[in-house]
Amino acid sequence: MGSLYPDSCFVYDGRFLLPLKTLKRLPALPSIFTSASARSARISCNDGGGASYGYDDPPYDSRQQAPSQSSDVGYDPNFVPDSVKTFVVHLYRHIRERNVYEIHQMYEGSFQRLSERMFRESPWPSVEAVAPYVDNDHVFCLLYREMWFRHLYARLAPTGRQRVESWDNYCSLFSVVLHGVVNMQLPNQWLWDMVDEFVYQFQSYCQYRAKLKSKTDEELQLLRQYDQAWSVYGVLNYLQALVEKSLITQILEREKEGLEQFTATDGYDYEGGSNVLKVLGYYSMVGLLRVHCLLGDYQTGLKCLAPIDISQQGVYTIVIGSHITTIYHYGFASLMLRRYGDAIKEFNKVLLYILKTKQYHQKSPQYDQILKKNEQMYALQAICLSLCPQTKLVDENVITQLKEKYNDKMLRMQRFDDEAYGLYDELFSYACPKFITPSAPIFDEPLANYNQDAYRLQLKLFLYEIKQQQLLASIRTFLKLYSTISVGKLATYMEVDEATLRTILMTYKHKTHVVDNEGKIVSNADIDFCINEDIIHVVEQKSTKNYGDYFLRQTLKFEEIISELERVKMD
Amino acid sequence: MGRETPKEQQQQVSFTVEELVAVNPYNPDILPDLENYVNEQVSSQTYSLDANLCLLRHYQFEPERMSIQIVVRILVKALMALPAPDFNLCLFLIPERVQMEEQIKMLIVLSHYLETARFHQFWDEAAKNRSILEVVPGFEQAIQAYAIHVLSLTYQKVPRPVLAEAINVEGLVLDKFLEFHVANSGWALEAAGPGRGHLVVLPTTEFNHPELKKNVSESVPLEHVARLFPILG
């Protein structure tokens, strides 16, 4: 039986799960971005060159590359164009000088421009080729490699071997961070992208691994050999380790009491320390929510997110990608938990936000992703509003957009006939996350593709729930017409017997009164009723125009304009 | 570990398991502890959704270690947690082929009846499957509590036969049951008029008296109004 584990933190060392404390002291890292004690040993490791990176294989199996990679276009991993030289030299310098603004400019701007101009269909130069220009700095090379793989995934199709190598790189990178020796500051956008990409590559690997039918013998052999790469235990434990080691939950708690600054400084450390572990820990909470949604465990996903208060702005809203990912998964999990009210509220807020701000992101590399998630959330909002009609919770502008995209479909979905199922199926399939099967593949003949299994299960259970709510729509229609009606009469109109009607009425009550995250019952119903022996008394939620809120907003807006004008006069 | 009395040891195990789930949930070695904890929940009539979800996840990660019996027990406990959606949450984590097992199919049917308030069919089906359900102490009471919950949402005054069918109790036993709730839960009994039997008057809540529900949307929260103070001041 398990004893009380002395260490809460388990980490992956590439093959085994080990308690973090017993992980061997890292060899003195040849990197300027680690703490002083490690740095002193740097001098002796500095002449390691390419060999210090521990790759037994040549970095690229040039013959085994997927056809879409550039072996045919004469890609030479060792050739470093001048622009890349300049890029890495400047980036290295900016990181050394803790110039977060410049780092961000290079990371978002220069990297994208160079990729667009020179590396549209080929990978960037190899890290070995680039290392000499940055003092062979170990940590910088890990960062460069992370960007290298991300570019590969975005533009080309990674091979099985490259996927495994990327996993290896993340392990090394996170291990360095978890040992608490990193002393640099990186822009939030970059730190978010790391976590986001980590989860994305995990999801991609699960999909890749589950398609066994068309794999070559060599690819199958690779899967067998590197069976620990991208293991679900490893991924979850790294994210959990980042959350725990960063002490981020305690930081957020203390911040509420005014004992700590985190959100106020956007997560940055103005006292000479590093923001990397803290912010990675913060974003890992969102990462955990995402992984749990991919597994179908919505309850635990929401629990992982709980330390972040999404009713307010926070570090999660600084980077638009993280804002959208957080709310998308929160909303989806709430939908599956039948907390339609919560989902509708949050989707509404973020959809309104995107509506107002998307023009500013047109040039950003995340623009396509933003648009895609936007569309998916409209689809989810359509589902939620069909299951739980509301007039109050959704902003007018969002409703207009929603009507444009889904008005016809929503009307048909509220009819709950066969056609409606088809529409629920369609929207759900379009908008749901790419669910995964986390277990290891079975290599017995005949090889099968099982990458759709997880999705099919979630869809089936979702539609099952829809079926249970089938008759509620007709109840609503009738209830809208009467303020009182006897059970007998209503049964006649609905063409069912009284006993059946009573069960339908109770189902309506049960499905519209959900259990919230504190275990309390909350009503979602816009039309409600109660039964007195055999008379039904209907109560409709009057939708009141929210004048108070409207005047508040206008007052604040005018005040803003007035102070703007006053400032102009002073110039 | 030292010599402890069985009771102390049991307490230490549950304390340890909850801690494990909170602090070290992604460790494959805790699987046996989680399984023991399920059995403990059954025998001591306690319940922990988080621990059970954690176990179902581990089964998902390593399907060869799954125990159908444990899954069945988890699902029965989840049914007892109604109106919370725990049963569905567990199903999301159980692979389709496992959901085809006879016992689990039966439990899914029971859940369907309960979710759609078909109490009559539920009790019929449950009677046919006593062997699986009786081994979990407290099952009948938990479902009766759920039935009363749904009735309390729906009715101000419910006809006695409707109540009887929902909780599967009749005759003298029902009389005793009603007596108990009249004394302890604020129920009342009323005659419904000539030849129409009795009514059970359920306690007044905002759910069976919807007009009592405070209309939150009309009020503006203080924090929002507070934003105006610098301007007005």
Automatic annotation (TrEMBL), chain A:
Domain PCI: 346-545
InterPro entries per UniProt: eIF3l, PCI_dom
Assigned GO CC terms: eukaryotic 43S preinitiation complex; eukaryotic 48S preinitiation complex; eukaryotic translation initiation factor 3 complex
Keyword Protein biosynthesis appears in the UniProt entry: yes
Subcellular location: Cytoplasm
Regions of compositional bias (Polar residues) in chain numbering: 62-72
Family of the protein in this entry: Belongs to the eIF-3 subunit L family.
Self-association and partners: Component of the eukaryotic translation initiation factor 3 (eIF-3) complex.
Functional description taken from the UniProt entry: Component of the eukaryotic translation initiation factor 3 (eIF-3) complex, which is involved in protein synthesis of a specialized repertoire of mRNAs and, together with other initiation factors, stimulates binding of mRNA and methionyl-tRNAi to the 40S ribosome. The eIF-3 complex specifically targets and initiates translation of a subset of mRNAs involved in cell proliferation.
Protein name, entry field: Eukaryotic translation initiation factor 3 subunit L
Naturally occurring in which organism (per UniProt): Spirodela intermedia
From TrEMBL, chain B:
Major subcellular site: cytoplasm
Subcellular locations according to the entry: Cytoplasm
GO cellular component term, pick one: eukaryotic translation initiation factor 3 complex
Keyword Cytoplasm appears in the UniProt entry: yes
Occurrences of domain CSN8/PSMD8/EIF3K (ranges): 69-193
Keyword set includes Cytoplasm: yes
Stored Gene3D superfamilies: ARM repeat, domain 1, Winged helix-like DNA-binding domain superfamily/Winged helix DNA-binding domain
A GO MF label: translation initiation factor activity
Assembly notes: Component of the eukaryotic translation initiation factor 3 (eIF-3) complex.
Protein name in the entry: Eukaryotic translation initiation factor 3 subunit K
Organism (species): Spirodela intermedia (Intermediate duckweed)
